[in-house]
User: Fold this.
Amino acid sequence: MIPVMTCYLPVDVTSLVRVSGSARKDMKIGFTILSCLLLLHLSAGYSAMRTPVPTAHDDGPYVHYTKDMIHLRRIVTVNGSASLQHDSMRISDKAGLVLTVNTDLPGKTFAVRLKARLENEKPEYRKASRQLVISDIEGNFGAFRKLLLSAGVIDDRFEWTFGDGHLILCGDFFDRGDQVTELLWLCYSLEDKAIRAGGRLHFILGNHEIMNLSSDLRYVHPRYLEHAALMQLGYNTFYDAGSELGRWLRTKNVAEKIGRNLYAHGGISRLVNLVDWDLPALNAMARPFYADTAFIYPDVRTELVFSDQGPFWFRGYYTGDTTGMAAIIDTTCLKFGVERVVTGHTPVADTVSSWYGGKLINVDTPHRLGKSEALLLEGGRIYRIDASGKKILFGK
Assistant:
């Protein structure tokens, strides 16, 4: 076991992130500068400590692979000081490894077992008896936990209780909030539990997932940059191809069809409609470039996927000139064989909202303001459901 270390970082990380700029191509340069500045402070700040008692401000674990070894890193906080714990074990012992992950509740944790293997998700599924849809949680573990409990997806031990139902997460679980790591591990663990019960968890990537994979750090909570420096790692390694969560994220899709519903973070633009591809082709084209930092794509179709007209970034359903948008949605429904499109990404109301005669539903609600809702499709009816469990019928 590597000795536990601590360091104090007197760097204004927020200002450094701001200096890095908003353009995606500038982020690579900004990140390099940020890393160097933070590491300068590290060189003078380390001192050995005894193993601390974990607190609610911990972060991790982060799981990385090198050759035949697994590395487990966790940040713990004692008396206001952040410290690093780093353990290593052989990959041959992976099956017996159980991770303990904190929640938003002090002293409350859940256990995670690493998956034996990771496979790319299918893009199309048959109709599910129940579908609960949530998006844009952005690091807010408490809001996510309350919605899952209120809808009967989990119990207070974080076990799956949704039977053969499907939980669809329409992107943007990263950034802004301070419990991104915990959220990802909960989704990771519920995925296997859902399958064993005959259900599914679908984690569809949003623009913030892509931003983090491709080192665009403009909305990353400062604590994660501090923790990366404390680990003497670049933040981009948290989710690179050598990390467990990074490998898992790379198996996820841009858009998925479940029964007669199409799910995407931003939506399907007129230009995407014009391209001759189905969902398997769309996802296969996007997947190799999730973590690309050059932003130079091999063809115009791939460039389209990652542009502001692509499924991650498109806002045209709700903003700008929406003339003819109903016809564009009709074309999308016909193209992909669905009745409606469900998105997040663009905040338009404090509640889940229905658009264009119910052919479009937006599930992006302001969770950070305590106005959390999810979309529930059950028994041929469509409901809004809030964190208290109150269901409001608003469609068929």
In short: The chain is about 25% helix and 25% strand. Confidence is low (pLDDT under 50) at residues 1-56.
